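Review session, final week

We close the course with one last complete record, chosen because it touches almost every idea we covered. It is Glycosyltransferase family 92 protein, a protein from Trichoplusia ni with 483 residues. Go through it on your own first, then we will talk.
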Amino acid sequence: MRSTLTLRLIFLASCTSFIILWLSLPPAPRKYLQSHGLRQPESRLLPYKYWYHRNLYPENYRDDTCVEFPDFEDILYASASWQLLQVENGNVYVYGAYWDDRFEPLVRVLVYSDVHPLPKLYCQLWYPNDNEPQLEVAIPLYAWRTQWGGPLPGVNEPYILSCSGRRHSPEPQVAPVAAAVVTTPCGAVTNVVRVQNAPSESLLGSVQPEAGSRRNNSVAVCVKWIHFREDISSKLIEWLQLLKQMDAEKVFLYTIKLHPKTVKVLDHYEASGFVVATDLSHAPQMSGRQLSPTLMEFLDMRRELVTLNDCLYRNLGKYEWIAIIDVDEMIVPYTTNSWPDLIQSELASAASEGALPLDALVFANFYITADSQRDLVGPARLPMMAFTWRNKEHSPWGWRVKSFMNTSSMIAAHNHIPISCDRDCVMRNVKTEVGKLLHFRRTCSEEGAECEKEREIIRDDTFGRWRERMVKEIEEIERIVGV
């Protein structure tokens, strides 16, 4: 009897161990079509025109080659947003590819990798009317600073791969239209993405031209992925209307999970052309590693960099500056009325001081918390319009700052400042009497000792110059959208 009980316990323990091991494994790669329900999913990421062109003109793609251009069903997906390259001891997750000829002809590819050190990788670059890809060594740039920690094995780390797009003589000098990341020159290819902004896409058929040319000091807003199950519809309308007041050109957001009313707000602004929202699904976060919530939050800051740099590279040549801010933040001019005017003023001041061309204009962070308000001057649901009491002192320079970043020189963007430029990045701290980053939070306690130390509050009604008109605009949009 005792031996039977022992055998049963051993069997149960073995089953339990197997289940725990199975649950800890990363999800298996899947082959599937990207959902038509996703915002901005397919034409932006997959080379549909190239597939169509190859099928329409097969006679142009008959050259013998050791590798075949991957078909739709050859692609492996880690999730709907991420294609997969399996390498020894881990994976490389491919997000997007971009043409970048600012300094030399290059294709930049944004990836995660959970392998460290990163294995030697190549770009297969595919061109119109050519069945043989050009193979180039991929030069990786870690899109995070090593002094901040990382890269770590088993963790999705962000990289920007740079591959020469200069054609080998005597081939014509045109840009590639599709790119794949591989480990060997020949063999099966499990990923391929469209090279965004490639001028040679015109050789594949009609291409919708960009409307107009970019304005001087034009600013696009990039937002890290947003994931709000609660209703933030009114706050989002308030924030977007303020961005219009600041004369931002367009807002690019990445969405994971949102309340239905918040989705209705985004739909409204997308229809007007002011917002571009891209649905995002995560690649498997870890290769079976169990990490604390605090460390996961820290690692998320690194993972956010892929989408933020996607926003940079998809907009090269379209906007002179990008601002990476969250939906509870606003860069506010105090001596001018718009972002372009503020930028122009700072550029003129820098030139008069003999400063080098600027890669970033940096703004100090001032907290405005709900629990610090002595009164409200607007509707409570609209904190930017209602709150007028802020911390007197700003966070230390270099801490919580946000920036306008120059798209002509930046190679890697971070949430706060550029990570890498074509030379050492040149940044200018904007005087706080000229401009501030206002950061709206519920309580100081959420931010820790840093916020508590700056707890003395003063009245600041800089939004008062727009409040009456803006509240009316917000209420009208709430009525139209039905939130």
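Two points worth writing down before the exam:
Confidence is low (pLDDT under 50) at residues 1-7, 9-38.
Residues 42-204 form one domain.
Good luck, everyone.
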